[in-house]
Amino acid sequence: MTTCHGAPIKLDIGKGEQKLVLAGNPNVGKSVFFNHLTGMYVDVSNYPGTTLDISHGRYKDWVVMDTPGIYGLSSFNDEERIARDVILQADKVLNIVNALHLERDLFLTRQIIDTGVPVVVAVNMVDEAKRRGIQINFDRLQEELGVPVIPSVAVKGKGLKEVEAALPQACTGRVNQELAAEIDTVSQTTANRGEALLALEGDEGIRTAYGISQKDKREEIYLNRRECVNEIFQSVVTETTQGANFSTKLGYWMVRPITGIPILAAVLYFMYQLIGVWVAGDVVGFTEETIFQGYYEPFVRGILTGFISPDSIFGQILYGEFGLVTMTVTYVLGLLLPLVVAFYFFLSTLEDSGYLPRVAALTDRVLNYIGLNGRAIIPLILGFGCVTLATITTRLLASEREKRIAIFLLGLTIPCSAQLGVITGILASIEPGFVLMYVLIILSILIAVGMIMDRVIPGRSSDLLIELPPIRLPRLANVLKKTGIKSFAFVKEAFPLFALGSLLISVLQVSGALNALQDALAPLTVGWLGLPKESANVFIMGLVRRDFGAAGLADMTLAPYQAVVALATITLFVPCVASVLVIFKERSKKEALVMWLSTWVIAFLVGGVVAQLYAHFEQIYLTVAAFAGLMALLVGASMLFSRRKTDVSAQSASCCHSEQ
Amino acid sequence: MTLANSVKGQTVCIAGIKHPMVRAQAIRFGISEGETVMIQEIIPAGPVIVRKKHQELAIGRKMAEDIQITLVN
Q1: How close B73 gets to chain A, by Cα (Å)?
Q2: A328, A385, A411, A642: least CB-packed within 10 angstroms?
C-alpha cells in the first residue's frame, strides 16, 4: 500500500494555482469557515491511492482545500498523513484553533509556522471560552505568534469577515531560530522547508523518500515546541475557574459504566424504536406501499404498456417482476431512502454531540478482546449506517492489524441501515425468541471471528488515546445538512448498483437461466440450508447488495426458523459491490480477495450449521446454546494453536511500525 | 506508581512515558513529562480518563500501565 510507507504524495488538485489550506485540530469548526469561503460550489476529490475525500472549492483566485482534523503534522495515522501532504503543499494556511483548548491547539499552530508557510490564525468559539471564564489577550497572542490572529464565533457568523480581511496579511510568523538554521541545511535535499522540518522530526515517509539519515530529533523539537506553547499560553490566557455544569456532568455519566451502560442501552433502544419500528414500519409502509406501489408503479406501467408489451423481453426488464423502473425505484426511494435518512440523522446528531468518543472509552475494554481498541467502535457503529463508508473510516485506526480486523468484521457481520431496515421488518413479524436467536448468532460470529483474528494475526493492536470533546447540543441546521449530503450520496451510489442487480436477475429470468441456477443451487439452498429453492434469487441479488437480497426475502413465505437461517446467511454474505470495491482499494488485492471469499464460506457454513442444529433440536435455545458452544470450541482451538502474545510495549502506535 | 493504579480524584504529575511514540503524542496533547493532570474517572479494567484544564483524554489501560506518575497534593 502506497499510503503505509508514507512518502509524500503530490496532489493534482489546484495544480499551478495558489492554494489556501484550512488546518486545525478536530472539533474546531473548520467546516464552517470552509463553507463560508467557498460557498455552494464544493468539489470532493479522492486522495491519491486512498478513498479519503478532500473537499476543495474556490475563493477569489485561490483554490481552498479542507483537511482532516489533526493534533500535529506527522504520520501517526492515515488522516495525519493526508493532512500533512495537503498542508505542506499550501501557499497559505488558515489555521483554526479552539479558544477552549489553546494550550493543545497551539502546538499544531507553532508546527505549521515552523514549516515556513504564511499563516492566519482564527481563534474560534470565543463565546464558549468566555462563558467558561477564559480570557484571551489576542493582541499579545498575535505578537507572540507573529501572524494575524482573529477571534471568531464561526457558527454565528461572527469574525468570518474579519478573517477574510486578514487573509492577504498572512505571513510567516516567528520561528524557532535554532530550528530554522537546521531546516536550512536539510531543505537543500527536500522539496520544501516543511518536508525538511518533518524529516528532522523523524517522519519516516519523508526520510525514506529523500534518503535522509541524519539523526531524528523529534523528541527534542517537540519538547521545545511544547515549552514555547506553554509559555505563550501562560502569557495570553487568564482563567477564572468555574464549577462543573450540566453538560460536563452528563459527559462523566456517559463514560462511567454504572450510568454509561444504561445510557448507551437507552440510545440504542431509542434508535431501534425510531429507525427499526417507526421508520421501517409506519414511514416505509406509507412510502413503499401507498406512494410507490399504490401510485407510482401502476402509473409507470400504465404509460409503458402503451409502447412496450409487458410480455416482451424489454417489457419484463423494464417493468416486470424485477423491473428497472418499477421495483428498483420502489426499493431505493420507497424502502431504503427513508431508512437511510433516519439513520444518518441519528448518527449526525450523535457525531455532533460529542457522544461517540465517550462510547469509545466505555467500550474499550470489550473491544480489546477482539483485537481492537475503543476507537474502533466508531467504524463499527457507522457500519450500521453504511458499511462502505465505515470501511473508509477504519483509516482512523492506528495499525494495519486493527484495520484488517475491523474491515473484515464490518464486511462480515455488520448489516447496513438499508439491510437492517429490511431485516427488522421481517423479524418484527415473527416471535421474539427467533429475533433473539438471530441476534445471538450474529453476535457470536462477531466475537468468535474477532477473537480468532486477534489470536492468529501477528503483532499487537495499539492502545486507546482519544480526546473527549465537550458535550454539546447539536445544531439542527448542521445535522440536517450532513444528513442531506450523506443520503444523497447513498442514492447516487445505490441506484446504479440496484439497477445492475435487477438487470442481472431479469436477464437470468427471461433467459430461463434463473430456473436452471435455482435447480443447480438446490443442494445448497434446499438440502443444506433447508430453504425453498427460490431463495437462490436472494443470494444472487445479495451478490450486488445484501439489502437487495434481504428485501427479496420479505416477499417469500418462510417458517420462522427458515427466516432466521436465511437472514443470518444473507447478513454474513458478501458485502455490497461498493464495499467490496473499497476493500480492494484499502487493502491489498490478495487480502481483499481472501476476505471476500471467506464471507461466502462463513455465511453458508453458519447458515447450514444453524439449519441442521435446529432440525435436530427443534428448539430455539438449545440451538443457540449448541451454536455458541461450537464457536467457543473454535476460539479455544485457535488459542491452543497460536502462540501467546508476549511483550506489550514493543509495539508502536504507527501503521508502518506495527507490522514490522 | 503508574497511571493505571491511580485513584479517581487524585492530582498526579506525569513522571515518565516509556514508549517514544506515546511520548510524542503526549507532548502534542500537552500531557508530557512534568505536566500535572487530574484523574477524572477510571473505568473498571478499562481506560483512565485524565483531565487537564478543559481537555479530557481517555487513555487505554495498557498505555496507562506504561505511564509513570507521582502524586501531587
Answers
A1: 19
A2: A642
Q: Which band of pLDDT confidence, cut at 50, 70 and 90, is reported for residue A231?
A: very high
Mutate to test the interface with B, among A97, A364, A471 (most CBs of B within 10 A): A364
The percentage of chain B sitting over the pLDDT mark of 70, rounded to a whole number, equals 100
Percent above pLDDT 70 for chain A: 92
- Pick the last residue of a domain from A239, A265, A293: A239
Q: Where are the domains of chain B?
A: 3-72
Q: Is residue A356 assigned to a domain? A: yes
Q: A251 and B56: CB-CB below 8 Å?
A: yes
Residues contacting residue A610 through CB under 8 Å, at least 6 positions apart: A441, A564, A565, A568, A623, A627
A359 and A395 in a single domain? The answer is: yes
A230 CB neighbours in chain B (<8 A) are: 30
User: Who contacts A46 (Cβ-Cβ below 8 Å, separation ≥6)?
Assistant: A52, A53, A54
When scoring B62, B65, B67, B68 by the number of chain A Cβ atoms within 10 A, the one with the most, hence best to mutate, is B62
Q: Please, which pLDDT band fits residue A582 given cuts at 50, 70 and 90?
A: confident
Using 50, 70 and 90 to split pLDDT, how confident is the model at A7? low
More confident residue, A658 or A354: A354
Decide if A244 is inside a domain. Answer: no
- Of A74, A222, A365, which has the smallest distance from its Cβ to B46's Cβ? A365
The answer to whether A22 touches A96, Cβ cutoff 8 Å, is: yes
User: Both A220 and A277 in a single domain?
Assistant: no
Is residue A319 within a helix (H) or strand (E), and if so which, with residue range? Answer: helix A313-319
- E strand or H helix that includes residue A196: helix A193-200
Residue A113: CB atoms within 10 Å? 25
Domain extent at residue A86:
2-239
Surface-to-core class of residue A124, CB atoms within 10 Å of its CB (0-12 exposed, 13-18 middle, 19+ buried): buried
Domain count, chain A: 2
**Angle in degrees, CA A478, A71, B68, rounded to 5:** 130
In a domain, A406, yes or no: yes
Which of A239, A265, A280 corresponds to the end of one domain?
A239
**What is the CATH superfamily name and number for domain B3-72?**
Ferrous iron transport protein A (FeoA) (2.30.30.90)
Does residue A159 sit within a domain? yes
ipTM of the complex: 0.92
Facing A463 at nearest CB: one of B28, B30, B63:
B63
How many contacts does A have with B, using Cβ atoms within 8 A? 130
